[in-house]
Hints:
Elements lengths: L8 E2 L9 E2 L1 E7 L2 H9 L2 H6 L2 E7 L8 H4 L5 E4 L8 H19 L2 H14 L2 H4 L2 H9 L3 H13 L5 H10 L3 E4 L7 H10 L4 E4 L5 H4 L9 E4 L2 H10 L8 E3 L17 H8 L7 E5 L9 H12 L7 E5 L20 E3 L16 H13 L2 E4 L4 H7 L4 E4 L10 H9 L5 H4 L5 E3 L2 H13 L5 H12 L6 H16 L10
Parallel strand pairs: 3-4, 3-6, 4-5, 6-7, 7-8, 8-9, 10-11, 10-13, 11-12, 13-14, 14-15
Antiparallel strand pairs: 1-2
Helix pairs in contact: 4-7, 4-8, 9-10, 16-20
Amino acid sequence: MLGVEAGRRIRSSGSNDSTQSELRVLLLSTSLLVDRVLLYSDLVPELSRTGTVDIWASSYEVGASAEYWDELDANVDHFPRIRPFKEFPYNYLRRLNEYVWDFRYRPPSRLSMMKHRRNKRSHFVIRALKPPARILASVRGERLLERSLERLLLSYPRSEEAKARLEAARPDVVVVTGPFQFEQPAVVAAAKELGIPTLAYIPSWDNVSTKNRMVFDYDGYIVWNETIKNELNEFYPRSADRPVYVVGAPQFDLLSGSRFEVSRQRFCEEQDLDPDLPIVVYAIGSPNFLNEPPGAEHLAKRVAEGHLGEIQLLIRPHPIHDNGEMRRMFDNLTPAVRLQTTPNAGKNLTRRTQDEAQIVEWFNTFRHADVVVNMSSTVTIDAALFDTPVVNLDFDPQPGQPDQELIKEINHRWEHFRPIAESGGVWLVNDFQELESAIKSYLEDPALHSEKRRWIAEYVCGYLDGACGKRMADAIAKFVAEEVPGEASGLGR
């Protein structure tokens, strides 16, 4: 593999003389999951060895969050101010474009989301776009539409601040870590206007198959594994003509070493748990998608009443979406049940990040758990990396089960999770009785399904060597060295 040293390249000087120039990379972050990569993996240290690293992070606030960032060998600044698109015509055409691609390619995850969520939550004006979308899909007009839409969106300036800062810094490449999000494409538009190359990092395994479309065409892509690369080439045909680098999952590098490891005794002291009793962790996903607390509450009451024997239950809210709404739900169930809390509660989602104490808590929650319970979540991977048994709900825990069909489809149809749910590495349960039985079985035999859990970790993460951050740095340097030939790059399409 080409190392970071390849990032040093020769700029064209317009004469026979040429000078060697250092790599200059701008990394964008608008998510605490990407902050984990920037703050705690080898990505930034490797890049900074041969050049300048600039970071624009939405969680960075001058003074208030300096402790998270000051130790990095990088120039860290706040994320620029962003304007939203106007509803008409921009957002309406974006929705039309998404419908056209959905009807043309019919991805199971997206169609399932359309049926169970978007059809119910979208305004009738948006749903009215479906008939013309079907027509455009039937005549295979999706590519022409998307290219026209891209030109339209690029013509709408969303951040003069981003443009001015890019013009002053002139990085060799802008690495976009949230290409499906609201904020970062605004910086991409400014970079394209200035002819600055862009690399899109796909920050999670479900993004290609579940998120709204990336309208902009990037000059290269970085992904976790070969499956994501194949999905990218299928659902974004223009990516087939761009370099796609498979680097693994840098956010999980943190789980492969011992830097954040603490003893079970210390972890339990900090969480008010008994180190001599088994720990079952119920990890809750985003409340914007599924209503999971009823399942956690039911299990918590059963644990508190002693139906699962002498065990304890630790409830872990989603670190991005925790707003402290469950604080009173489990108060009367202590000491058998504890709720983790986060200082991020109440913060704007893009302002959230994690200091080292929160990383230590994340690391040791899954390291010291004896069983992890969840519903079709990425924490399945967190647990598998520690070879911790995982129980996955294959039913809706809400009274009346309004999302039963959706949950079945997630586990057995959705592209990213079906291979995991059906791998044999997680225990799928169809009701609360099966949930209790699975927990008891795993507590009796923790090695059960261990080989399949290893397969899950390898399948999703691609690499388990703790070097994905370095591999990502190598990919960025290789892109600049091989795809950006001096100042006459021409890549800023």
